[in-house]
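Quarterly update from the structural biology core.
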Amino acid sequence: MKEIFTNYGHITELWWDGANGEKQMYDWPFFQKTVHQLSPETLVFSDIGPDIRWVGNEKGIAGTTNWNILDTAGFTRGIGAPLPDTLQSGNYNGCCCIPAACDVSIRSGWF
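Predicted structure, tokenized:
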């Protein structure tokens, strides 16, 4: 990460994808701290943010009501994330401002 964030110019957005499943463990707090130290303007996406959250589906559709706030206490990235219906709607009385991003594959499947 240090090489990417110091040698390739401004990076607007970084995606932390949950596709790895539960087989690999990552030090997310360390990664988040490193990114924000090296590139404080970079927005970080994952299922629970910290800056942008996954919308809970890969159809490119947010819920009819989609709050930009989400409670993340007790959740972790990947397998420990909130259920997709929570990600799709957010939390009316949530504590963290984490707007949802809709993603969709441009073909059948991602790879």
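The mean pLDDT is 89.
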